[in-house]
Design a protein that fits this description.
Elements: H1 6-21, E1 30-34, H2 39-55, E2 58-65, H3 71-87, E3 91-95, H4 98-105, H5 109-127, E4 132-134, H6 139-152, E5 165-166, E6 169-170, H7 178-188, H8 204-219, H9 223-252, E7 253-254, E8 282-285, H10 286-290, H11 295-303, H12 310-318, E9 328-330, E10 334-339, E11 342-347, E12 357-359, E13 363-368, E14 371-379, E15 392-396, E16 404-408, E17 414-415, E18 424-425, H13 426-432, H14 437-442, E19 444-447, E20 453-456, E21 460-461, E22 473-479
Parallel strand pairs: 1-2, 1-4, 2-3, 4-6
Antiparallel strand pairs: 5-6, 7-8, 8-11, 9-10, 10-11, 12-16, 13-14, 14-22, 15-22, 16-19, 17-18, 19-20, 20-21
Helix pairs in contact: 1-2, 2-7, 4-5, 6-8, 6-9, 11-12
Length: 480
Amino acid sequence: MEKNSPTISTFVNQVRHFATAHQLLTPGGKYIIALSGGADSVSLLLVLKHLESELGITLEAAHCNFHLRGDESLRDEEFCKQLCRRLHVPLHLVHFDTHAYADLHHVSIEMAARDLRYAYFEQLRRDIHAHDICVAHHRDDSVETLLLNLVRGTGLRGLRGIQPRNAHIIRPLLSHSRQQIEQYLDALGESYVTDSTNLHNDVKRNKIRLNVIPLLRELNPSVSQSIFETSLRVTEALKIFDDAIQHAIADVTIPPRECTSGGALVSSAPTKQLGTTPSHPLTISVPRLKQQPSPEYTLHEILSPRGFTSAQIEQIYTSLDTNPTGKIITSCTHELAFDRSTLILQPKTPTPLVRPMHIPETGTYVLSDNLKLKVETEECGDRYEPSRTADCASLDASDIKFPLTLRHIQPGDRFVPFGMTGTKLLSDYLTDRKKNIFEKRAQLVLTDAQQRILWLVGERTDNRFRITPHTQQALRLTLQ
């Protein structure tokens, strides 16, 4: 570490400059070095050790033994122990049964190792109160990632390659090439271990590294630097793009109506949530969406974070002109419905939202964790005032037969809306009330023993059971 040369000083200065430019290292901070024993992680440890006192940081190393390469894995562990002992850097060791983890979770060995590694690093960071975890990704890694993203198909963010910071993962060597790293170690006279699996082109990344990039260098010897600089320009351009896309998303999304609930309640009066509608629905205005400079990409930015695939988003976009009202497309986490001139988006919920409940007599019935129905009778006098709030209904009890049933609406359900004389399909009534398909699906009704609908919950009572001057006893229904 005492050696000095133009190669060493240049390397150290460039790392310092990159870390400062991207605000990677905080004075007084404690940092974990992910140490494999390879050239990249060894150079990362050495250069940060060189800057330790200057930057006022504290370093500790962590090594993961995945037991995937027999004696090589043991060799790597021993090398890391000796290196950290010589540099007086505390070393944390962990051993994994990677094959067992991969079998248990049905993932590849590569994915298993990645999951185990980063989960351990994060837990260690919390345990020792470290600021961040330093990993040794370099410029060539970023270029390989960008090319892999292109091969697989990518959006604009895939053209950024690897970022200097991702939450508590930081990458101080990202501006350096593998060649520069090896030259730095050579100038220091430092050794490192080599992972033999990196020498075979049996995985996609190694094929990019060993086959594709050498071919590209025949066209441009500085191709890695050119691609990396392009990724930096894309990163800067994305800052402008992200600001513009957020304005576009705000322009095409419509705030939720004043109150929606399990009874599909929409009212200007103060009401209680009925607790059966999925939270945080999002409404997208199709006319406004079509006015955006790039409607399809705006739609992609709204739907992709909610689990919709590129193929699904293309299907949704091409269906906008045909407007298939009532059609639902689902992702792993969300549902999207076409509803006239809008798209309604909400998180998935279990179905049915509320199980049918039989109510044999008066009393208080628990429907869900946050929803109760109180059923009681009241004597009616000359001054009796029926309830006029959405979450409470007053009905003439004389012709109501128990048991009652609280359930979701079903196809063919009809009732006589309060103030009318003829029956009306509930689906038509809710359409007239401009309820979307999710609100219709969540709508509750209360029926009597003869399956007559007494109350379209939160919306309207049935006129056949209205309170009249002749009513002697009322049935009062209150959602709590």
